[in-house]
Lysophospholipase
Amino acid sequence: MKVSYLLTASALSCLTSTSAIPETEVPSKSLAKWKRASPEAPNGYAPADVDCPSTRPSIRVASDISDQEKTWLQKRRPNTVEPMKTLLNRIAIAGFDAGAYIDNHKSNTSALPNIAIAFSGGGYRAMTNGAGVLSAFDSRTPNAETTGQLGGLLQSATYIAGLSGGGWLVGSVYTNNFSSVQSIIDKNADGDIWQLGRSILQGPKEGGLQILNTADYYSSLISIVKTKEDAPGPFNTSLTDYWGRALSFQLVAATDGGPGYTFSSIQDDDDFKNGNAPMPILLADERAPGEKIISLNATNIEFNPFETGSFDPTLYGFAPTKYLGSSFVNGQLPDNSKCVAGFDNVGFVMGTSSSLFNTIVTQLDAQDGVPALVKTALNGVLSTISQDDDDIADYTPNPFLGFRNDTNPSAKNDRLTLVDGGLDGQNIPFNPLIQPVREVDVIFAIDSSGDTVPPTDSMQNWPNGTAIIATYARSVGNTTMQNGTSFPSIPDANTFINLGLNNRPTFFGCNATNTTGPTPLIVYLPNAPYVYNSNTATLQLSYNNTQRDAMIENGYNMATQGNGTIDSKWATCVGCAMLSRSFDRTGTTVPDACKDCFKSYCWDGTVNSTTPAPYFPTMKLTELKLASGVAHFAPSVLTFALAAAVSGHFLF
Ligand SMILES: *[C@@H]1O[C@H](CO)[C@@H](O)[C@H](O)[C@H]1NC(C)=O
Ligand SMILES: *[C@@H]1O[C@H](CO)[C@@H](O)[C@H](O)[C@H]1NC(C)=O
Ligand SMILES: *[C@@H]1O[C@H](CO)[C@@H](O)[C@H](O)[C@H]1NC(C)=O
Ligand SMILES: *[C@@H]1O[C@H](CO)[C@@H](O)[C@H](O)[C@H]1NC(C)=O
Ligand SMILES: *[C@@H]1O[C@H](CO)[C@@H](O)[C@H](O)[C@H]1NC(C)=O
Ligand SMILES: *[C@@H]1O[C@H](CO)[C@@H](O)[C@H](O)[C@H]1NC(C)=O
Ligand SMILES: *[C@@H]1O[C@H](CO)[C@@H](O)[C@H](O)[C@H]1NC(C)=O
Ligand SMILES: *[C@@H]1O[C@H](CO)[C@@H](O)[C@H](O)[C@H]1NC(C)=O
Ligand SMILES: *[C@@H]1O[C@H](CO)[C@@H](O)[C@H](O)[C@H]1NC(C)=O
Ligand SMILES: *[C@@H]1O[C@H](CO)[C@@H](O)[C@H](O)[C@H]1NC(C)=O
Ligand SMILES: *[C@@H]1O[C@H](CO)[C@@H](O)[C@H](O)[C@H]1NC(C)=O
Ligand SMILES: CC(=O)N[C@H]1CO[C@H](CO)[C@@H](O)[C@@H]1O
């Protein structure tokens, strides 16, 4: 039985007259062109039967990483050695021969640093500020490999995780041939993606890859989702389908936002297969049946190109991402069930991780230029979606039906409902990266959360540690959920502000023995005004390219500390953070230069929990002056409307 998040009959009849939409058109040009994610889905956006592989897919217990990930790591880890050596040689930690150290250990890569990067949620603020950090870490960015720069850290990393707005960044880059941020923004107004001046409510400009005009854009959102609803099989649609489709026009460089592009197709790309880029992971939370509030013990669900599932003890299982949509029962695919593929549309996965924004779809019908018939259809869709369900992504059939009945919250349900990965308060995607089986040494955690709120704080939308505190709280609050993971001690938000930990890079967990088990070192990089007031509202949906690029430049300067002008030893300290756990493992004496760094950047356990003064960060470097002009949208008005639409949720 299908749940009725569908078009009502009357809405449908209106639609049919306007829906001359090219539903799954993908010109062969883009088939050949985009090599990372690709249109592997058998029937565009609609999931469809495919031949099963020789070993029938099944659900596995999460006691280890997958065999596929293990095989992939055997390629990836060795491929990080040369970039790491190049970067560390350039950083040139005084009194330490990085080249010799790497050479001595490169026959055994598990002795060398295992690096992860995590991008928080926070809408386009998080996506663009994060993009600046990503470009600073990318050796392909012009000048990123000069003295004091950190280009090559991305090439040295094993994992790269994102949730919500951070997931848009990670998902978009991987969907588009692992493009560098620079190559995306260099195209300026001619770019096919990241044209954020045209908000998701307006749709893309006509031309280039996008062949739809605004009116057709709206109808295409509806008609393409309808192909999934109409497909044979138990699939339900939810607001996330529309949201993910809309998002794809901004993030996926393919006609109509690539209705046939799947997240799992990343695994088939030659470069990814060969371990030439880190593994992307997107994060969502499970909303258990009957639950309204997403608490800290909500099950965290990760999407990686191979698998979807959780290491949390509740679910403790993984399904093959490619075969989501298949009707697994008790962990197996019954003999009489076909394999289904195409469910893991890349926009749907990005939309799931950012489902907080689903309600934006409800604003579409207030837009100019939407034909009356489309408005009627939209209203029909929206009126059938109960408010309780407006923020969920519907994964029917539930791949984990009957799997681990005793602890899996959705074991008895035909559908699995997922929500925005930040809704449990953990707005930085740490969960996949602190799993002991992944053996991560250091996590560069980019926090673009919008925590600070007036009147306590007069300047809003800066981080105050809330996101990382949540993960710490989870790691100590509930030993069941902790399940062998370990996280460094993190102080309270007042301490973050009083000590300035939310205003400059801070290392947590420097002392590896002061924790309950193997714990990565966290390099916490909080969003702050380096060259631009990058505390834009989470729900600001329109950024002209000048503002977009200013956000990116702010992130770049945050990652490099103004190319070392704020602290000339910053690059050295990044090198020391990369190496710290490796030093422990190989019994290497920590160089004095690194001891100095740890003195400067490690949180030393000091706490000051008194109520802080209002937080008014000052510009750290010369402020970028944006040319004056009138923006396309009045963001404040729009933001206000959206804030009303999502009220009742925390706004990360
Ligand atoms: C995709 O990236 C590879 C390098 O990783 C490059 O050789 C190829 O030309 C790129 N393709 C496109 C269409 O940009
Ligand atoms: C590889 O390095 C790890 C960590 O230093 C060590 O535990 C392991 O014994 C080494 N393996 C070999 C074959 O040397
Ligand atoms: C889980 O529950 C289902 C339905 O209640 C049942 O059919 C199945 O056998 C159970 N699985 C296990 C492993 O007990
Ligand atoms: C930190 O942010 C949280 C989340 O918005 C907020 O509830 C809290 O009041 C803030 N605390 C301080 C000291 O800024
Ligand atoms: C700890 O987590 C388990 C599993 O989610 C849950 O059943 C239990 O209620 C939690 N305990 C507390 C005190 O929150
Ligand atoms: C994690 O949870 C699973 C499932 O409950 C359990 O089998 C496993 O032993 C736990 N691991 C640790 C280290 O506690
Ligand atoms: C690291 O932590 C351990 C355990 O708490 C403690 O004994 C040791 O003194 C600490 N080391 C430093 C350098 O603070
Ligand atoms: C740092 O370098 C980048 C790239 O070369 C440049 O865009 C940025 O303006 C520089 N920042 C400062 C503070 O000089
Ligand atoms: C060391 O561990 C203790 C106990 O968990 C904690 O209170 C303290 O803050 C930790 N110190 C540091 C520097 O992380
Ligand atoms: C703690 O923070 C408050 C508020 O910022 C400040 O006034 C006070 O001096 C701090 N206390 C110490 C011991 O540093
Ligand atoms: C771009 O947006 C910024 C911030 O809203 C604004 O100051 C600037 O004038 C805009 N530029 C153009 C060309 O619209
Ligand atoms: C999935 C789960 O165990 N959820 C529990 C989380 O904690 C709250 C109370 O703190 C319970 O009500 C939920 O059942």
Observations:
- Residues 1-35, 629-641, 644-652 have pLDDT under 50 and may be disordered.
- The CA atoms of residues 177 and 547 lie 25 Å apart.
